[in-house]
Amino acid sequence: MTLASALRSHATMRFMLSHPLHVLSFSFGIGLLPVMPGTAGTLLGWVSFIILNRYLSGVQWWVLITVSFVAGCGFTGFTARCMGVKDPSAAVWDEVVAIWLVLLFIMPTSFSSQLSSFLIFRFFDIVKPPPIRFFEKRFSGGFSIMCDDIIAAFFTLLVIALFKKLFIFNSS
Fold first, then answer.
1. Is the pLDDT of residue 134 over 50?
2. 3-class secondary structure for the chain?
3. I need a labelling partner for 66 at 20 to 30 A (CA). Which of 12, 93, 101, 153 fits?
4. What is the mean pLDDT of residues 70-96?
């Protein structure tokens, strides 16, 4: 491995600022945090959802999530290719978009329910149980980067729905 390729494979501020699409992939630098960048990206998504939710309707959220997913496939894939890495840990745009999807379905709800959703999503995103890992390995590029987090979001919503169903049935 040459020095140039070794430097490309490590996320740095200099690399991020070398192209605007890297800034988006790294969620404006959040992905550069040295510890738990995916969790930080998810937290950014949560906070940004709370802020934007005051101004966006449900339809506008769907448009934003769809556009962010499609665009994210392009720019996270570009960043991954430039870094020579399949799924750079600093590319956290996928966590932002996926937690937006989770929150869109559960809001309005309490802080503790939001926190639980955050933690469930992080579990699925980190552990990647089947079929999440299958899709991550089957596809490549930006679609793979974005898709596994969207599937983790759906698993999160499934767990929340099952919990609500069980809780409602047991409380009667």
1. yes
2. CCHHHHHHCCCCHHHHCCCHHHHHHCHHHHHHCCCCHHHHHHHHHHHHHHHHCCCCCHHHHHHHHHHHHHHHHHHHHHHHHHHCCCCCCCCCHHHHHHHHHHHHHHCCCCHHHHHHHHHHHHHHHHHCCCCHHHHHHHCCHHHHHHHHHHHHHHHHHHHHHHHHHHHHHHHC
3. 12
4. 96
Instruction: Work out the average pLDDT over 96-124.
Output: 97
Paired tokens of 91: 């590319």
Query: What pTM value is reported for the model?
Result: 0.90
Instruction: Look up residue 31 and give its amino acid.
Output: G
Residue 93, both tokens: 């745009």
